[in-house]
Amino acid sequence: MVVALAGRRIDAANAEVYRFPIQNIDVVTNRLTKFFSSNNITALVCSGACGADLLALAVAGELSVYRNMVLPYEPQIFRTRSVIDRPGNWGILFDSIYDEINKKSGIIILNYSEDDNAVYEKTNIEILKRARDLSEKDKSNMHAITALIVWDGNPREPNDITEHFMKEAKKSRYKIEEINTLK
Predict the structure, then answer these.
(1) How many other C-beta atoms lie within 10 A of the C-beta of residue 26?
(2) Environment class of 22 (CB within 10 Å of its CB; exposed 0-12, middle 13-18, buried 19+)
(3) Using one digit for the tens of pLDDT, what is the confidence trace for 61-82?
């Protein structure tokens, strides 16, 4: 099975609403490990933001699952905007995982403009397309794709990128699984 994943970033230090508190990292990592270990995962496709993405990429790496990291723009810009702007040592983890995946030609840089207001929605669509492409190449698990949503289950208004990913996955008729970042 190929997993396309999207989810919450770690909450900002001054977050008014908790969606993925830093103290829940171990719980979410354990849930990801259980999910990956319990299913016949052949590949993971996601972005590389702090929180759900990097934790899933780390777990998949430990389990020798093929990984693709899809970035909307150049890695250093992404690292600044979506990785090191939150509490924790996410920059070190991003750099390590990026280097590992890059050695296996698993990095996809979309080269969107950093000023594009729809950049993350477009990245979601590319993640789902890449998962489909990988599934079609995997003859042992033809068309077995699961969209894994790692979040608190509560969409942000007005535009929630994680909810957008789930809606697009449903349109593609992918199986949807969720891992909660709060409970």
Answers:
(1) 9
(2) middle
(3) 999 999 999 999 999 999 999 9
